[in-house]
Amino acid sequence: MKARCNIGGFWVAAVVYLLSVAAMFSSTSSPAALTGEEIAKRIIARAQASSAAQSKHQQYTYKKLSINEELDDQGRVKERKEKVLFFKEGSGSLLAMKVNGKALNATEFRKQEEKAAQEQVRIGDKPARRDENWEKYLTPDLLSKYQFKLLSRTNYNGRPTYVLAFQPISQNLPVKQMADRLINQVAGKVWVDEQEYEIARAEINLLSEVNLWGGMLGSLKKFYYLVDRTRLDENIWFNRATYGDFQGRKLLDNTHMKLRSESSNFQRILPMSSR
Q: Domain extents for the chain?
């Protein structure tokens, strides 16, 4: 069970890193085509400007329902974990948890509560307090991996939005770290807010099978991830809903996981003087 959770955690962490790929397309400020150099400059400038806004995320509280399902080879649910978390100042605490529809007893809940307090979303070996904090991963090296195309302009959630498609610039991108094996093989679409250049929605999928250590450790055959985001205030965006479908092999065992989450009840924390 522990090994299974670890491999699941790796792909979820890779997802967070992949979201920074989607965020790079949020720098198109007009329908006119931009060169790669112009896009890179806008991306870096945007990332630097966004660092100050990250502290504003901690001014909100919200609840998050997270569901993790493990499926068998026939697509039937083998195990289902359902968690309800409360986020404040960028960190989450466990409110409730069910396994296969049954609530945990007091002892099991305390163990999971302690585990939730210790775990943070990870990219490589570096913990991150929030999965919305993508900006620090936007680098020229990341930008250089993809080509993109402006598909259309639309209205998404009442706001003018660009729709872009992206894909790797080459089938033989260099692999410098484990996550690159996945990142080099993904493509998708992003919906970008025209006014604030934030991701309103992203869909990411796998182009071809990804092997770990030549296939000896495992492989990823299916990878689909969707994120839908909501704007709470100027330059303040949160993930409202996510959905992931990941299928592959760990050593000799086939794995199939479906993950989804829904965040709600966003509340701004009032200053002490206003209470």
A: 2-269
Q: Residue 229: which residues within 8 A CB-CB, separation 6 or more?
A: 198, 199, 200, 201, 237, 238, 239, 240
What angle (nearest 5°) sits at the alpha carbon of residue 208, between those of residues 202 and 212? 105
Q: What is the DSSP string of 227-269?
A: EEEEEEETTEEEEEEEEEEEEEEETTEEEEEEEEEEEEEEEEP
**This prediction's pTM:** 0.76
Q: Say if residues 265 and 18 touch (Cβ distance below 8 Å).
A: no
Q: Could you tell me whether strands 60-71 and 77-88 are parallel, antiparallel, or unpaired per DSSP bridges?
A: antiparallel
- Among residues 266, 256, 260, the alpha carbon closest in space to that of 63 is found at 266
- Determine contact, residues 263/241, Cβ cutoff 8 Å: yes
Can you tell me which residue has the tokens 């945007």?
46
Distance (Å, whole) CA 70 – CA 68: 7
DSSP secondary structure, 171-240, as one string: SS----SHHHHHHTTEEEEEEEETTT--EEEEEEEESS-EEEGGGTSEEEEEEEEEEEEEEEETTEEEEE
Two tokens, residue 198: 């934030």
Report the SS3 class of residue 14.
Answer: helix
- Other Cβ atoms less than 10 A from the Cβ of 65: the count is 16
Residues 166-225 have pLDDT tens digits of 889 988 888 887 788 888 888 988 888 877 778 789 899 999 888 876 656 778 889 999
Which has the closest alpha carbon to 66: 241, 268, 221? 241
